[in-house]
Design brief:
- The chain contains 14 helices and 2 strands; from the N terminus they run ααααββαααααααααα.
- A two-stranded antiparallel sheet has the order 1-2.
- The chain starts with a helix and ends with a helix.
- Helices cover 71% and strands 2% of the residues.
């Protein structure tokens, strides 16, 4: 009876959305494994999902009200994650020119996932306490300080995508917290200045080439720059209403889609499932994000509201940027599709955040 009572309190929409996404992920990864005759990542993803679901359910059992009072604990986690990223810069192995992962036997671990978790807690706690003071630019600029060290270290990896996600989470929580037009205008001008500075001092040559190729495709060599994006667009454009059928994607079979299990898994999915499959995927993500936001805004705790906004904004920005990359609406950034792409660190960190959130939702503190 206690188990049944516990399951009844779980949010069905969120749980069922995650279940559907996990099935779709495994289906696409099996299809990719079939074309390569290698099912290792498919099997590992099953383990990640099982562990992730159990972790989420376990965390949802507890009352997390005390977390809003432990700002300095998450500040410690924040600095720990920065130390791990710094350690990677000196000792990590480069994969495609970037030092992003620790290699732990058959698994890889990305410390930026810990950074994102800590920042969602930090921003939710900071802005929930500074809510009245947001009309003071000092409070806003103080929150920006939490972005400075990540910006430096992630640019050295380089891991531009992770910083874009962190910046979007900060901005989303800031908007929901309340900000006047004057402060918004000042921040917009600072953002323009930062973009100019990033172009001249931070972005590496290959990153600039991707942006130029995106803005002026006729000036780039299709066999060198943005090859992956072009092949993804071909796969998506040829799918039609119903797709080419499960396991039957031509671009996937011929090996034209690079990183089919991670960055460009949406292209594989779209080619095989077609427009209706893509529409279903959009619907599932919409339900998941909408439900998180609805619970957040109906919760009496300002901390929980902002935490939920941070969680929803992270899922949304990954979803938006991954698909934008696949369909050619943004330069190639290198971000996974949440709950669909292969990867343990990203998947488990999302389940961790959802477990905390569901615990908050069940308690309604």
């Amino acid at each position: 009876m206690k188990t049944f009572s516990f399951l009844k309190k779980l949010d069905f929409s969120i749980f069922f959305s995650l279940f559907l996404l996990s099935l779709l992920s495994l289906l696409v990864l099996y299809s990719i494994g079939l074309s390569k005759n290698n099912f290792l990542n498919f099997k590992k993803q099953i383990v990640f999902f099982i562990f992730g679901f159990f972790l989420m359910l376990f965390l949802s059992l507890f009352d997390w009200e005390f977390l809003k009072e432990h700002f300095f604990f998450f500040l410690s986690v924040y600095f720990l994650s920065l130390f791990l990223i710094l350690f990677l810069l000196f000792s990590g192995t480069k994969v495609r020119g970037a030092k992003i992962w620790f290699h732990l036997g058959p698994f890889f671990f990305d410390p930026s996932e810990i950074l994102k978790i800590s920042l969602i807690f930090i921003f939710a706690s900071f802005f929930s306490k500074k809510h009245v003071e947001l009309y003071d630019l000092k409070s806003i600029f103080l929150s920006i300080l939490f972005l400075v060290l990540p910006a430096i270290l992630l640019s050295l990896q380089p891991n531009l995508g992770a910083f874009l996600v962190i910046a979007f989470i900060w901005f989303s929580i800031l908007l929901v917290s309340g900000i006047r037009k004057r402060e918004f205008l000042i921040l917009s001008l600072l953002a323009v200045f930062f973009l100019v500075f990033a172009w001249s001092k931070i972005l590496l040559p290959y990153q600039k080439e991707r942006i130029i190729a995106f803005l002026f495709p006729h000036l780039s060599d299709p066999l060198k720059i943005n090859w992956s994006q072009r092949q993804a667009k071909i796969a998506i454009g040829s799918a039609g209403l119903l797709g080419k059928g499960i396991f039957e994607g031509a671009q996937k079979k011929l090996g034209f889609i690079t990183d089919p299990e991670t960055d460009f898994i949406f292209a594989v999915f779209a080619e095989e499932m077609g427009f209706l499959g893509v529409l279903s995927l959009f619907l599932i993500f919409s339900v998941l994000i909408f439900r998180i936001l609805k619970i957040s805004f109906s919760h009496p705790s300002n901390f929980v509201k902002l935490f939920g906004v941070g969680l929803a904004s992270q899922i949304f920005v990954y979803f938006f940027l991954n698909i934008s990359t696949n369909v050619g609406l943004s330069p190639v950034i290198g971000l996974p599709l949440p709950f669909i792409s292969y990867g343990g660190s990203f998947l488990i960190s999302n389940f961790f955040l959802l477990g905390i959130f569901l615990g908050m939702q069940r308690r309604k503190f």
